[in-house]
Amino acid sequence: MKVLLVSSPKSVMGFDRVTKLPNLGLNSLAASLKNLGVTVKVLDLVLVKNPGKYLTGFLASFNPDVVGMSCMTFQYPDTLNLAKRVKAFNPEIKVILGGYHPTVDAETILEHDHPPIDYVIRNEGENTFPAFIEALKKQKDFESIPSFSYVDNGRVRHNPKGELLPLQNLPMPDRSSRVIKDGFHILGRKADVVETSRGCVNHCKFCSIKQMYGPKFRKYELARVIEDIKDAKAYSAEAILFSDDNITVDVRRMETLCHAIIEHQLNDISYAVQTSIPGLKKAPHLPELMSKAGIDICFMGIENSVQNNLNYLDSKQILTMDTRTIVQNLKKHGITVIGSFIIGNPEDTREMIYENFKFANAIDLDIPLFLILTPFPKTEVREELLAENLITNTEDYAAYDLFHANVRTRHLSVEELEEIRDDLGFMIFKKPLRILKLLKKYPGYSMKVLWEQVITQPQEVLGYAKGMFK
Ligand code: B12
């Protein structure tokens, strides 16, 4: 049997100019099929110019029996079109979906989009997917497969959710299964993804993590993490994103991980991490150690500078001026600090949103990101916003990318929210020092992106340049 695993080509906000990353989830699934005697290939379509055409061409050369597709919510409409292409190529090919969006919206997918979608796997797939392939091979029925959704005589069935997986039993991700091995990058450096844990202990009501992993935080043995880093380096990674949602949940462990990277001389490449302020607040010595381990990008979800909004979002952030100290400490050790804020909360006024901008400047973030509150399926925030009739787009998931406004606030319309978003995007460039620092840190790559911008969007670049010096 031949299995093709496909990750979505869709990217938002020019993310693909900043980074293109392999889909670690699919590499982990490929490894879980290893002992079943099936041939499995992983295709990262983010690396190809014309994904649809490329996919059809690859189907003709590989001729798979099963095509598995992974997607986030904003990527779903495009993934659906790719699934239609698979069925147009050969209606016998089984199409199965997994990942964040299928996990939170399996019902709608099979009620509305079957065919081309035949099956959905919810949550983690390393046990469920091999069980599905075995059942398919032996023509056994599917009712005993956990977290599996399918259509049986016209009726959509959702098998009960399976247990969270013991990470120590999971095989290392299979990077050899990648069809395209070159082209992954973070700011121009060859890149890969490694996970050291799964899950998050926080309860932010806008986040989809809970639907995937529940409120549990599970850790891999650090020896395995070191082996995984070595494997990624063997595939020529010069930069690694740790996909952990909050790698500072356990600061002691983070210290041990940094020491292990240094001891194994794996600090000759760079790392990007996602952290939280409460974690870093507990360990003021950590940034120096992180820098020694090669960590040079730190992403933190600050969420909001207005305490009422933080309470509304159930975010555990405690925002005081020592956030500035934490950011300064990271920057002092050469770490680029990206901080994201969520705007478009029900109580948000124009003034409250600009408060976040002032705060982002006051704590001197290298890159502030202003993302619009997005009512992802199955999140508490969706239920609450629906009840208050504050969601303006409930179904067109292509816009669920945190860039477009799918909500209004009690004081601002969708149009006003998007106008403010654009203005903030513009205002970020009003700090020439901020831009010059990034240009200095990533000279080659920044010039390449800038040049591409000048060629493709000269007016926009002119607008930013004028704005910078007004
Ligand atoms: C790494 C990451 C990124 C990276 C790269 C992602 C990429 N490869 O393109 C970067 C930083 C670029 C990124 C950006 C964004 N991200 Co992001 N990201 C993640 C993160 C932290 C890790 C994903 C990962 O590798 N997990 C580890 C692997 C092993 O797990 P997995 O992917 O879930 O796969 C497992 C299961 O889902 C399942 N599975 C997955 N696919 C399939 C397919 C089949 C066929 C089967 C059977 C099973 C299956 O089995 C796998 C193994 O168990 C997740 C949160 C998280 N921890 O998962 C958020 C997350 C996926 N991102 C999210 C979002 C919204 C975004 C942005 C849109 C945000 C923004 N606007 O800034 C952007 C869009 C980027 C773009 N492509 O344009 C949301 C998605 C929510 C949703 N409902 O869609 C998440 C869940 C974060 C959150 N807190 O809500 N992201």
Please explain how this structure is put together:
By secondary structure, this protein is an alpha/beta fold. The protein folds into two domains: 2-158, 3-Layer(aba) Sandwich (Rossmann fold); 184-428, tm_1862 like domain (pyruvate-formate lyase- activating enzyme, Alpha-Beta Horseshoe). It contains 19 helices and 17 strands. It has helices spanning 15-18, 24-32, 51-62, 76-89, 100-112, 128-137, 209-213, 222-234, 251-263, 277-282, 286-292, 307-312, 322-332, 350-362, 380-387, 414-427, 432-441, 443-456, 458-469, and strands spanning 2-7, 19-20, 39-44, 66-70, 94-98, 119-121, 148-152, 155-158, 185-186, 189-194, 197-198, 218-219, 239-242, 270-275, 295-303, 336-343, 367-372. The strands form three sheets. Strands 2-9-10-13-14-15-16-17 form an eight-stranded mixed beta sheet. The longest helix is centred in the first third of the chain and has 14 residues, at 76-89. The protein is globular. The mean pLDDT is 93. Residues 11-13, 15, 19, 21, 23-26, 28-29, 68-70, 72-74, 96-101, 104, 121, 124-126, 129, 193, 195, 207-209, 212, 241, 243, 245, 371, 376, 401-403 line the site of cobalamin.
